[in-house]
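TASK: fixed-backbone design
INPUT:
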């Protein structure tokens, strides 16, 4: 009986490469879903739950720091028995506003986040079966266009790939449908290149797989994904809101004390001559 000849770098390598590509594809889709869908949804949900309270805390914190700074400057001037005039007080207010400009920018950035989250939840997003089809088509496009799965991909196709990723990120189903029809339905044949260096390609795929696994782990351990458990627990959510409310009240009390102290200092100033 004739023995079956088993050629090296053929069936076994081809099979291993196929399995590696399938794993890489799965990991790419998982990473994309984490970055563009799940992470952004978690971020929006976090801001929706806690954003307004965090905004109040930032605003009160800014007021606290400005009041404390103003009192510090006035008290130092009084200790040196220097004259405090109205012009100085007006200039002091302007200087403090400039000094804390970066904190005001943080406050505005927080407000923009709140507006972004409101827009994300109020906009028409695809759901249900439509979303399942959307992800399925994206998966097929990734197979055809992702540079990690297609070595030496044509630059024009690579440009399309970036457009597809952008469409997936923003939930633009019409764009995904367009490229799905153009790329996937128009080309359903994927011939293997027999001249491929299997050993090199297998090594490349393994390296990519490890990098994406590391990236996925980093995503799941960073903001906002690390708040997922908090948001998934109604009790933990309420507890965190209570902590923020307590901090708000604490700042209000501190600010009231500083406002009274500032008023007392200004009322005790005897010389109001302009300097």
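OUTPUT:
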């Amino acid at each position: 009986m004739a023995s079956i000849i088993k050629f090296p770098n053929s069936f076994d390598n081809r099979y291993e490469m196929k399995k590696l590509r399938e794993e890489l594809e799965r990991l790419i889709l998982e990473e994309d879903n984490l970055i563009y869908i799940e992470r952004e949804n978690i971020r929006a949900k976090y801001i929706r739950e806690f954003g307004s309270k965090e905004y109040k805390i930032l605003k009160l914190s800014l007021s606290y720091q400005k009041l404390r700074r103003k009192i510090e400057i006035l008290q130092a001037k009084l200790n040196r028995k220097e004259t405090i005039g109205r012009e100085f007080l007006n200039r002091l207010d302007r200087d403090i506003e400039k000094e804390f400009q970066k904190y005001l920018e943080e406050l505005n950035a927080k407000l923009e986040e709140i507006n972004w989250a409101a827009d994300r939840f109020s906009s028409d997003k695809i759901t249900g079966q439509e979303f399942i089809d959307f992800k399925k088509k994206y998966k097929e496009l990734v197979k055809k266009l992702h540079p990690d799965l297609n070595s030496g991909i044509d630059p024009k196709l690579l440009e399309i790939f970036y457009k597809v990723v952008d469409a997936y990120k923003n939930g633009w189903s019409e764009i995904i449908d367009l490229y799905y029809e153009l790329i996937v339905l128009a080309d359903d044949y994927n011939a293997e290149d027999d001249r491929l260096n299997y050993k090199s390609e297998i090594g490349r795929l393994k390296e990519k797989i490890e990098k994406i696994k590391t990236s996925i782990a980093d995503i799941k351990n960073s903001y906002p994904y690390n708040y997922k458990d908090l948001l998934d627990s109604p009790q933990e959510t309420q507890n965190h809101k209570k902590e923020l409310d307590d901090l708000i009240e604490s700042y209000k009390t501190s600010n009231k004390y500083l406002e009274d102290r500032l008023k007392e200092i200004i009322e005790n100033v005897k010389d109001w001559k302009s300097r």
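COMMENT: Residues 29 and 139 are 7 Å apart (CA to CA).
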